[in-house]
Known about the structure:
Elements: E1 13-19, E2 23-29, H1 62-79, E3 85-89, H2 100-114, E4 119-124, H3 132-140, E5 143-147, H4 153-160, H5 169-176, E6 184-188, E7 190-194, E8 197-200, H6 204-217, E9 221-225, E10 236-238, H7 241-255, E11 259-261
Amino acid sequence: MGKDQTVLFHSTIFGPIHSRRLGVSLGVNLMPDDGKVCSFDCLYCEAGFNAQGAGSTGLPLREQVRLQLETKLKDMHSKGDPLDVITFSGNGEPTLHPDFPHIIEDTIAMRDIFYPEAKVSVLTNSTMIFKPEVAEALKKADNNILKLDSAIEETMRLIDRPNSPGFTVDKVIEGLRQFEGTGIIQTMMLRGVHDGTAIDNTTDKEINALIEAYKRIKPREIMIYSLDRSTPEEKLVKVEKEELRAIGRRIEEATGIPVVNA
């Protein structure tokens, strides 16, 4: 399985950092600052495997998030610092936070005061989109970035390792259709080996299945990317930019949906 690589964010508000996909980004981590809580256990997660545990600090309270974010935005604004995006990511799945919908409302209100041109982005693994209040909150974000790493059940389970046996490719594709024209579908392209099993979601079969899924979902954009940092499963291989661009062109031509290579 390789080493349990962990690069955790040790705060609720982090950055700003320069994101290769999103620009100057201020991060919001709604999970513990000393552990990981996620409904997936992805082989490529830079925060490491779930086996490390949830730590001891617990989830930050809504009011703590609001106050810390307001303090940071006020400080950045007073210094004239640029900001392109406020991004929800961190040590696990942000939509698992019980106050996620209210925190999104708070964030939009503060964004409108301090950085009205900045976007609010959420990186989600799509496991909570079946809860109406979560779906509605995601629709309020400027960039609702939803994960779909494979449209083939076996491959999705190998790469993403969802906690719930009830989470299936068919179910998530159907659920993602509610974000037609607004959502951004994000797909991690990789290949490698895990516990002796080969993994490759760049094959013709995989790409064709993804194309059919994208056609059903009809997102406003498709974002494909590959490995950029250390992964807990060390036997994963990055898909290089030239190949990624070729895959992107193929998907765009087949679907008519803009593809961004991140």
